């Protein structure tokens, strides 16, 4: 069997790992073994948090909508239910943006939701 010399590929792999860990603290940016461990951790955190970011933003939007709805005398649940009954199909991201930037428009949405809830009851 022919002999395989790994020096070039091994060095390239190590160099790539150390380049990816540039800016890490301690030995994690200079010691290959520590850098490899840190990079594995960093990748797993990045994967997990790409999913968690979606949760976090939805929670933020719901909190903002709830605060604006309560200023208009409704709870979040009543507001969302009234919006569905009124046939207004805006997602939470847009509603939260309206709540923060344009309270008057949000007040009109709340009024429409209140009227739709009253009509259904």
TrEMBL record:
<dbReference type="GO" id="GO:1990904">
    <property type="term" value="C:ribonucleoprotein complex"/>
</dbReference>
<dbReference type="GO" id="GO:0000027">
    <property type="term" value="P:ribosomal large subunit assembly"/>
</dbReference>
<keyword id="KW-0689">Ribosomal protein</keyword>
<dbReference type="GO" id="GO:0003735">
    <property type="term" value="F:structural constituent of ribosome"/>
</dbReference>
<dbReference type="Pfam" id="PF00453">
    <property type="entry name" value="Ribosomal_L20"/>
</dbReference>
<comment type="function">
    <text>Binds directly to 23S ribosomal RNA and is necessary for the in vitro assembly process of the 50S ribosomal subunit. It is not involved in the protein synthesizing functions of that subunit.</text>
</comment>
<dbReference type="GO" id="GO:0019843">
    <property type="term" value="F:rRNA binding"/>
</dbReference>
<dbReference type="InterPro" id="IPR049946">
    <property type="entry name" value="RIBOSOMAL_L20_CS"/>
</dbReference>
<keyword id="KW-0694">RNA-binding</keyword>
<dbReference type="GO" id="GO:0006412">
    <property type="term" value="P:translation"/>
</dbReference>
<keyword id="KW-0687">Ribonucleoprotein</keyword>
<comment type="similarity">
    <text>Belongs to the bacterial ribosomal protein bL20 family.</text>
</comment>
<protein>
    <recommendedName>
        <fullName>Large ribosomal subunit protein bL20</fullName>
    </recommendedName>
</protein>
<dbReference type="GO" id="GO:0005840">
    <property type="term" value="C:ribosome"/>
</dbReference>
<keyword id="KW-0699">rRNA-binding</keyword>
<dbReference type="InterPro" id="IPR035566">
    <property type="entry name" value="Ribosomal_protein_bL20_C"/>
</dbReference>
<dbReference type="InterPro" id="IPR005813">
    <property type="entry name" value="Ribosomal_bL20"/>
</dbReference>
């Amino acid at each position: 069997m022919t002999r395989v010399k790994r020096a070039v590929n091994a060095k390239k792999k190590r160099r790539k790992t150390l380049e990816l860990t540039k800016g890490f603290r301690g030995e994690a940016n200079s010691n290959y073994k520590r850098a490899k461990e840190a990079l594995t951790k960093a990748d797993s955190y990045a994967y997990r948090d790409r999913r968690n970011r979606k949760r976090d933003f939805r929670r933020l939007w719901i909190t903002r909508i709830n605060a604006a709805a309560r200023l208009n005398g409704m709870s979040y649940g009543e507001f969302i239910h009234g919006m569905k009954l009124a046939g207004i199909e805006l997602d939470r991201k847009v509603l939260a943006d309206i709540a923060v930037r344009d309270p008057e428009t949000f007040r009109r949405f709340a009024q429409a939701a209140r009227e739709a809830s009253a009509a259904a009851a």
